[in-house]
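Structure representation:
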Amino acid sequence: MNQIDPIVLLATLGGGAGLSAVITSLGTVIAKVRRGVSPREGKRRIDIVQQRDEALARLDQANERADWADANRQVAVTNEQRAREHAAELRVQLIAAAGIARDDLPDWPDMDHTIPRDEFRRLRSAGI
């Protein structure tokens, strides 16, 4: 009994090593299941998330530019309205200073008139 049989020793060590390999593989599988994805799929998911974040950042920049352009358009409309009011005020002052009757004054030009698209294209192609 004091002597250890080499075959029993090899069988015991081999069985332990085999059991160790099975436990290691099982641990790896459990870790993957717990994470939900394989490492390659995890990298793909990270790439997709990064692309989404970049797209959202580009969308925010585009929205900011659109808001800025809209604010500038509103300022332009306000400035145009103020200019028209100022011109009307000056016209009244000139009429009063010259002593001209209102009926003798020419009509205001049509400032809201827009150029028809065909006319615009014709003028643009003529280089005007």
Notes: The chain has two domains: 8-37, 38-100. The radius of gyration is 42 Å. The chain is about 80% helix and 0% strand. The chain has a mean pLDDT of 77.
